[in-house]
Design brief:
The complex is a heterodimer of chains A (262) and B (343). By secondary structure, chain A is an all-beta fold. Chain A has one helix at 15-19, and strands spanning 30-33, 37-38, 43-47, 54-58, 75-76, 81-88, 97-104, 109-114, 145-147, 151-158, 166-173, 184-191, 196-204, 214-221, 231-236, 254-261. Chain B is mainly beta and 343 residues long. Helices cover 0% and strands 44% of the residues of chain B. Classes of the chains: A mainly beta (262), B mainly beta (343).
């Protein structure tokens, strides 16, 4: 069974930064890229014009430092992996790190049907969750489906010739905007022989304290003996919002962008 | 923004060492912001007010009165107006009845300072003495024929012309600019929401530009469009000053320059990405405090964004008689205003 991929980020308060309080922190660079699902023509552009500072990047599994390459021209993105970028300058504290988990586009999906989203998002295109455009961090951007119901159901039918071995759902965690990870995600596969939905994966998520804003890709393996012609996510919304949050007692939101089949 | 055409700007995931409380510990000796001849040292500890006795919520706008005092408007109803000296000592305070205190404009009326407060929650503009005595209240402008009820009117800013005419921008309501005479009698309205060049989107601020005495004009914010729009004092549209990426608040003109707090950048919405711009007589950006200095091509500046986290959500700039700047911030952890001294 492949290890579930969870792309989370933690706020790291390093002691070296706490000591260096006489400097201002750089902002992260402005990065323009048409999503994180790549093809042969994918390019990444960076804007960051601050004298005494530069943008460094790395594909290695660590934060960029001043010894890493400096961005100087658009980067051609031809590989899967995590690109990290950071603004660094001697007279400043370094910026937060930007993470871009590039991956190839998913296999074709025929149909996705969902329980009703909030009416504000009901007008979005019917293929919004499988159009291979993914990763805008702004929940109002029009790329996210927002749900405020107690339970969210998303049914997925892969294309005829696809042998689905893993399904990934993209979720937003932005607690300042009352957007939480679901309390629980359950994945079902439809068994035609018995005409029933069978549980093939389930995960629960805590929300005991505040977390950093993050785009979360949750990947669920599909067992080999499963007929994956129809799959269904059922997600339990956070209701009520926990006491530590300013929105305590109210209902939370679930935001979904993109379903990917491998 | 259409989903198919979006260019993904900014972070998918941000992580690292952003430390919210850090600004309180910075000293004026270490930090320099801006470009060219408009560079400043930042002092985040200017205000000596105590949060326990004189708390603030959003710090919305600031002005300097003829006594040289610095006035801050906050929507904290324990003390809506805080009055400082230039060193940051709190001198006095007043105001408990302005829950939506947003816009603060000072006008010298026959030698006396008077204030105009825009209250978002009360849907009113209130004229007061410098000590807070109410002189006049402007209710929602039903004379325009554009409003059915007070709730549709959410004024954000005023400016007063030399003849006493009052211009109000309904920046969180219907985006009309409403002109009254000094007695508060309706004259005309213009701007409003729409797709035409003369229309506005989030008409958050307004000022009168007298730098060319032969052609004074109104400069009105169209914040969602990242622009200022200019009109004659009679409301005829002149042109648009594009400021791509910059959510500009109120324009403030002092001497040859126009100063404006930028609440945030398009590149990082809801991510404390504000900065402060200074424009010259030709409305060209000559300095950016905490942001990039944009290059110009055919009078069009390139996109602006934050480069240094000096501010979170700057909402207004006040320039005192010694050319110091004071920056008030919205939704920034109840932080008091910062002072910036010219280098």
């Amino acid at each position: 069974m492949s290890k579930p991929v969870t792309l989370f980020v933690l706020l790291i308060l390093s002691s070296s930064v706490l000591l260096a309080q006489t400097k201002l922190q750089l902002a992260p660079p402005v990065v323009k890229v048409p999503g994180i699902l790549i093809d042969d023509s994918s390019k990444l552009l960076v804007q960051f014009n601050q004298p005494g500072a530069a943008v460094h990047y790395t594909w290695e599994n660590r934060d960029p430092n001043e010894k890493d390459p400096v961005y100087s021209a658009p980067l051609s993105i031809q590989r899967e992996g995590m690109l990290r970028l950071k603004s660094i300058g001697k007279s400043f504290l370094p910026s937060e790190t930007l993470y871009f988990p590039f991956r190839k586009k998913g296999l074709p999906i025929s149909v996705v049907t969902t329980s009703p989203p909030n009416s504000y998002y009901a007008h979005l295109p019917s293929n919004i969750l499988f159009d291979n455009i993914m990763g805008n961090p702004q929940f109002r951007s029009g790329s996210w489906l927002g749900f405020d119901s107690d339970t969210v159901s998303i049914e997925v039918i892969p294309s005829e010739n696809v042998n689905a071995r893993q399904i990934t759902i993209g979720l937003l965690r932005d607690e300042d905007s009352w957007i939480f990870m679901p309390k629980k995600i359950s994945l079902f596969a439809f068994a035609a022989a018995s005409d029933t939905w069978q549980l093939i994966g389930q995960r629960s998520y805590a929300a005991d304290s505040a977390s950093t804003k993050a785009f979360v890709m949750e990947s669920f393996p599909i067992p080999e003996n499963t007929n994956a012609r129809k799959l269904k996510f059922v997600m339990e919304n956070r209701n009520p919002i926990p006491d530590w949050h300013p929105g305590k007692g109210n209902k939370g939101w679930i935001f979904v962008d993109e379903l990917l089949i491998d | 923004m259409h989903r198919r055409s979006f260019i993904w700007q900014g972070s998918l995931i941000v992580s690292g060492a952003f430390i919210p409380g850090i600004h309180r510990k910075l000293s004026a000796d270490y930090v320099e912001l801006g470009h060219g001849n408009k560079r400043y040292r930042l002092d985040t500890n200017w205000s000596k007010a105590s949060a326990s006795t004189h708390p603030v919520k959003d710090c919305h706008e600031m002005v300097q009165d003829q006594k040289g005092r610095i006035l801050l408007l906050t929507n904290h109803t324990q003390n809506n107006l805080l009055i400082y000296d230039k060193k940051g000592k709190l001198l006095s305070s007043w105001g408990t009845e302005y829950p939506g205190a947003h816009g603060l404009t000072l006008f010298n009326e026959n030698g006396q300072d008077v204030l105009f407060i825009c209250d978002n929650n009360r849907h009113q503009v209130i004229k007061t003495t410098i000590d807070g005595e109410v002189l006049m209240t402007l209710n929602y402008p039903k004379e325009t024929g554009r409003y059915q009820k007070a709730e549709e009117y959410i004024p954000t800013e005023t400016i007063i012309a030399a003849n006493g005419d009052i211009y109000v921008v309904d920046g969180y309501g219907q985006d009309w600019v409403i002109q009254y005479n000094s007695r508060g009698e309706y004259i005309r309205h213009f701007g409003g929401k729409g797709e035409k060049a003369e229309n506005l989107a989030n008409a958050h601020g307004i000022c009168i530009d007298n730098r060319n005495p032969k052609q004074p004009c109104l400069v009105v914010t169209s914040r969602v469009q990242n622009a200022f729009k200019r009109y004659t004092l009679e409301g005829a549209y002149i042109d648009t000053i594009p400021l791509p990426g910059a959510w500009v608040c109120r324009p403030v003109i002092n001497g040859d320059f126009l100063y404006v707090a930028v609440l945030q950048s398009n590149a990082r919405i809801d991510e404390k990405s504000g900065f402060v711009l200074i424009l010259d007589k030709n409305y060209q950006v000559v300095s950016s405090l905490g942001g990039n200095l944009p290059a110009y091509q055919d009078k069009q500046p390139e996109e602006m964004y934050q480069t240094i986290r000096a501010f979170q959500y700057p909402h207004d700039v006040c320039i005192d008689d010694e050319q110091n700047l004071y920056v008030a911030q919205w939704n920034s952890g109840n932080v008091y205003p910062y002072k910036l001294k010219p280098v």
